Amino acid sequence: MASEPVILEMRSITKEFPGVKALDRVSLVVKAGEIHSICGENGAGKSTLMKVLSGVYPHGTYRGDIVFLGHESRFKDIGSSEAAGIVIIHQELALIPELSITENIFLGNEPRRFGVIDWVQAKKRALDLLARVGLEDDPDTQIKNIGVGKQQLVEIAKALNKSVKLLILDEPTAALNEADSQHLLDLILGLKGRGIASIMISHKLNEIEQISDSITILRDGKTIETLDVKADGVDEDRIIRGMVGRTLENRFPDRNAEIGEVFFEVKNWTVQHPLTAERMVVKNSSFIVRRGEVVGFAGLMGAGRTELAMSLFGRSYGTFISGQVFKDGKEIQLRNVTEAISHGLGYVSEDRKALGLNLLDDIQDSVVSAKLSKITKLSVIDKVEEHRVAESYRKSLRIKAPRVSEGVNKLSGGNQQKVVLAKWMFTDPDLLILDEPTRGIDVGAKTEIYGIIRDLAASGKGIILISSELPELLGVSDRIYTIFEGAITNNLTADEANPESLLRSMTSAKKKVDS
Amino acid sequence: MSATPEAPEKAGFRLRDLGKMFGGAQGTGRQVGILAALVVIVIFFQITTSGLTLNPTNLINLVNQNAYVLILAIGMVMVIIAGHIDLSVGSVAAFVGIVVATAMVSWHFPPLLAFVLGIALGAAIGAWQGWWVAYIGVPAFIVTLAGMLIFRGANQFFGNSNTVTVPDSFTFIGGGSIPDFGPNTNYSNGTLILGALVIVALVWQEFRQRRTQTLMGAEPAPLWVSIVKILVLVLVAGGATYLFATGRIGTSYPVSGIILGVLVLIYSFITRNTTFGRHIYAVGGNWHAAELSGVKIKRINFFVMMNMSVLASVAGMVGVARAGASGPGDGTGWELDAIAAVFIGGAAVAGGIGTVVGSIVGGLVIAILNNGLQLLGVSNDRVQIIKGLVLLLAVGVDVYSKRQGRPSLIGMFARGPKSTSGGDTPPSAPIDRPSVAPTGESAEASSRPQSTTPNA
Known about the structure:
Shape of chain B: globular
Oligomer: heterodimer
Largest sheet of chain B: 2 strands, antiparallel
CATH architecture of the largest domain in chain B: Orthogonal Bundle
Strand order of the largest sheet of chain B: 1-2
Number of domains of chain A: 3
CATH class of the largest domain in chain B: Mainly Alpha
Mean pLDDT of chain A: 87
C-alpha cells in the first residue's frame, strides 16, 4: 500500500430513509492525490454516500463520522463542504444555460469591489481557469451554446475557483462522446498531478480501470471491499465480481408462458438526441419480440433504453432518423402516440409521477384514460362502466385503496404503479413496454408486479422489460438484449445470461453480436 | 351493494353527509365553502338592505347585469383547467358587439342572422388565438394579451369609436324577459312554468344520481340527505320563482338568464361526461402523461381557446342587447371579472382543477357583493377594494389550509380534489408521505430532456 497521507475518512456511515436503509455502516478512505472510484450497481448507495459527504444530507441526518484533512467535519449544507474544499459535480450539471461561462464560474462567488461585481477581475480569472482545464472558448459565450463536454469543463473550472481539495465527479462521462470523455479523464489525471484528489462514480468500468488508483465497491448499501488497482492487479472482471455476488432470491414467478412466433420486429432503429444533432442516442438497433415472451433490455443509465422505448412509442422522444417496425409481418407506422396505441402498443413509463399519471385524477379516471373510446358512446362517458372497469382492476391487481374514487396521489408507489399497469392493460395491448416498472417500490409490491408481468405474457402478449436491476431482468425475462451507448451489443437467452455476462456487454461495445 | 347497508351511525347526522349534499362529482371543498359563503353574503345583504336584495326588481337586474360575465366564466374555467388564461375576452366581446350592431343597422341583417354572424366571428377569432397557442406554442397569456389590444383596437377602428344603437328586436336577448301569456294569475305564467320545470329536473337529477351510485356498487348518501337536499333546492328554486314571477307587470325571469342556464347545463355536461371534457382536465393536470396516453393535446388546447372566444361573442351580444347599443368601451375589465369568478369558484392556477358550476357560484358571489354594496350606497372605489380583498381571501384561505395538510376550506364538509360517490371513513393512507422512497440512485435518473413541445 502506498504511504500517502489520508485526506478523507468516512467511518461507519449509516443513512436511512423511511423504510429503506440506503447506507449501512459504509466506510471510505481516500488518500491525498489519488483518484478513487466508487463502483456498484444502481441502488447500491453511491450517490447517497456522496450526498452525505457533500452536505446535501446535513450532519445529523445520518450516523457516522467524516474526517476531512484531520478534522471531524459536520457539514450543514453544500456551502460548508465547499468552504472546506470538497466540491461535487453532479451528473446533471448545475449551470445556467442563459448565462455566460464567466458568470457561471463565479455564480454565488462573484469577485466584488465596493459591493459591485468586478467583471474585469472576473474575466481575467476566468481566462486563467479556462486555460487550466484546457477550454479555449470565449468566456463570454453563453453556456447553452457550448456542448456537454465543454460544459463539464466549465464545472471543473468553477470547482477550481473554489480552491478545491477533493473533487467528486458523479458519472462525469455519461453524457459525453469518446473524445470528450478522454479529454475529461486526462484533465482529472492532470489535477491529480497538482495534488487534487478525486472521487469518481462511473458505470464505465473501462474508464475506472484506466485512471483509478483505488476502487471501493458498494453493494446494497454496504462496503464490500476496497481494491488497490496496481497492487491487486484489478481488471474489469474483478470489479464486476465484486459488484454482483448477490444471490437471487426465490421471488420470481415461474416462467409459465408458451412462447409463440415472432410478431413484433424492429429494424435498424436510429434516433437522434432532441437537442444535439450529432448525437445518436439509439444507433441502428434491431430486435424481435415473440408472443408470450418477456424480453429484457439491460443497459446502464443513459445507455439509450428509455430513449429506444419512447421513440418507438409514437416518437415520444428525440428526432426519428431511420428504421422500420413490423407487426405480424406487416410494416406499421407509429408516428404519434394515438397510432402506437391503436397498433396495440403500451408504454409504462420510467417516471410514473411525471409521465404516467395525472396526480389530480382518481383511480377510475386514470385506469380508463388511455382508451376512453372503450367506454364512450358518441364521446359521452359511461360512468357506470368506467366504475365497473376500474373496480375489476382494483380487485384483480389488488390495488390497496378503499374505493376507485380515491385520488391516485394518496396511493403508495407500488399501488400507483399498479394503477398505471391497469391503465395500459385496459388498452389491451399486444406489446407492453415496461420501463423500470419496479423502481422505488417495496419488495412485496415488486413480487406482485412480477406476477402480473408473467400473467400478461401467459395471455399471449409480448413484454419488453427495461430494468436497471439485473436480478429482476434475470428472474423475469425469457431473453435479454444488452445496450451500450445506444447500440444493441448482445442477445442472450435466460439460460445464457448471468450477471457477469450482462455487465460485460452493458459496459463495452466489444463482442458485438448480430441480433 | 349489500341489501342491508349497516345503519351508518344511527344518529344519522354526519357532516360528511352534508358535504355530499352539494359536493358533487369533481366538487372541491372550496366550492362547498364558497356556496356557504354565498348564502351568508345573501343573508347579510338581505338584512342590511332591509329586504332590497331579494326583491323582484333587484333580482331581475342582478341577472341582467351579470349574465354576460357568468357566460364568460363558463369558457374561462375550461381555459384555466387546461392551464391557460384568456385576457382577450372583453375586447373580443366588444369587437363582436360592434360588428353585429353594424350588421343590423347598416347592412340590415335580421337579428337572428346577425346573431349567427356574431357566433361565426367569435369562432374565427377563437381559431386565430387557438392556433397561436396550440400549434405555434406561444403562451396563452401573450396571445390573448395581444388579442386584448388587437380586438379593442378593431372595435374602435370598425366603429370609428362611435356608439351604434341596435334595433329593439335585438335587445330581447339582453334586456327581455319571458313574455306573458295565458290566464291572468297575477304572476308571470312563463316564469312559473320555468320554475316548475327546474324543480322537477332537480328532483329527477337527485334520484338519477342515487341510482347511478347504486349501479356503481357504491353506497349512496343516506336517504335523509337526499330528501333534505331536495327540500332545500326546491325551497330555493320555488322562492326564486316566486320572486321572479311577482315583479312589476311585464317583467319576469330574464332571457339572458335562460341563455346562461342553458349554457351552464350544456358545459357542465361537456366537462364532466365527455371525452373532450376529460381531456381538458388531463392536459391541465399533467400534459406529459396526457400526451403519452394518446391525448392530442394541441387539438384540445386549440378548441378550448376557440370555445372561449365563441362564448365571448355570446357574452358580447348579450351585453350589447342589454345596453341597447355597442360602444368603444364595451367589455372593459370583463376578463378580470370572469377570471376572478373562476378562481373564487375553486379552480387552480396551475390547471387541472375547477368546475363550471363552481365558477358560476364564484361569479354570483362577486355579483351579489357588487349589487349589495351598491344598494348600501358604498361608492365604487370602495367596492373595488372589497372585491379585491374577497378574491385574495377566498384563494388565500384555501391555499393556506391546503398547505397545513388540512382539508380545503370548510373541509369538514368534503375533502379531496374529487370526493365523489359513496364513502365512509376518510382514507387512512398518509397523504404527505412521498410514495417513492428516495433510494440513492433516484436522483441519478437519466437527464433525458423532455421531447415534446410544451404547450402549457
